Structures are given as C-alpha cells and as structure tokens.
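thought: fold this chain, then report.
action: predict
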Amino acid sequence: MNYQQEYKDFDDNKKRFADGVRVVAFDADDTLWDCQSWFDRVEQQYGELLAPWGDSEAVSRQLFATECRNMPLTGYGAKAFTLSLVENAVNMSNGEISAQRLLDIQQLGLSLLSLPATPLEGVADALSHLRRQGQYKLAVFTKGEIQDQEGKLLRSGLWPLFDRVVVVADKQERQYRELCQLFGIGMEQLVMVGNSFKSDIEPVLRLGGRAVHIPFHTNWAHEQTEEYGHENLIVIEKISQLKHFL
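observation:
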C-alpha cells in the first residue's frame, strides 16, 4: 500500500469514527490524572505496617480479597479502601494490632482523599481542543464516592472544560444507558474515553457505542480483564492523539 492510500484509509477511519457523535465522556482516575500510583504507594506503606503478620505479597492478596468482599456494600474510592485497610489489618493480626497502628493505617488511607489530581500530560490541551470545536458535549463519567471524585476534579482545574460531571456507584451497561438518557442521545452518538477496558470500554462496545482506550502504566487488579479489538474501538498511547479522531 502506498503512502497516499494509507493516508486516505486513515482519514476515512477518522471520519467514520466521529460521524454522528454528540457526546464525548471521559473517565477520571488514570485517564485525566494519576490515581492508581498513589493507591499503590499507600499499599506498599501498608505492607510495611503489617510486616509482623505477613510479607507484602500476602498482605496485598488478603487486602484484595477484603476489598472484593466489601465492594457490594462500600463501593469504590478512598473511603471504601480505607475501611478495607483497617478490617484486613485486624484480621491478619488476629486482633493483635495496636490502636496506634490502626490509626496510622486509617490516616494512610485517608491521605488518598487529598492526592493532587494533577492532569496527565496533554489532557488540558486535548479537552480545550474539543471544547473549541464546539461540536461535542463533554462529560466526566466516573465511578466512586461523589465528594472524593468532585474534589479531585476541582483540584485538577479541569471542571470548567466539561458540560456535565456524573459520578456513579459503578459503570456497567445500565449506567451507560442512563448517561445517554441524560443527554438525550442514542448509544451510537456516544464516545467513551478511558483507561479501564472493563469499566470504560467493554460495556460501551456491547451497547453499540464507540470507545477510545488509553491504557495506563498501572492498573488496579479489579479492573483487569481480557481485551480485544472491535470496529468501534480505537486504542491510543496518549490523550494528545485523540485529536486525530475527534
């Protein structure tokens, strides 16, 4: 294939992907700013506090099991994570852990409520580019605890670039249908941009929407799933490449 044909195919794909799109929704954590790296650092420090009762691998394994068990009741986010940190510490130590060390663990978890939420490289420029076009409504569509998620968005300075901010308990097919109802659009008019294939990409593809996957360098174990190609899916390395398709 010659250069001219390659360029034509790329341009055709770009037009097809953007055709009819009215809303572009963005995941927040690890799409707009780094979040998981902060959780990983807290978990590392947590492992050091629980070293008398297990190595770091055992601590992480038991903590993940505790999180998964609690998730139906506590949901996602720093507060839910902190509850699991404390519960897991009591269980792993057979109740021997001191009150002071439990307080240290609680403070460690709550420190995540003030992580800086500095926008990742290229995020502000990409959002400003879409905003200047005036062609799309822009939304943050993220799961977690509303006060925590809104706090990060405020600290990021990105809030004015969005038309709507929607925080939900989970991101499955029902929530995506409700997002489209909120904007009065069909699923085929939505593009979802995010780092998690499980939460941001797969539900949208199943419903007939379009998605842009931007893998992050680290991923929470709960979000890991098998990934695959799809005609309505574009995978890019960084958000600055989004302008080639929207």
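thought: worth noting. The first strand starts at residue 23 and ends at 26.
final: tokens above.
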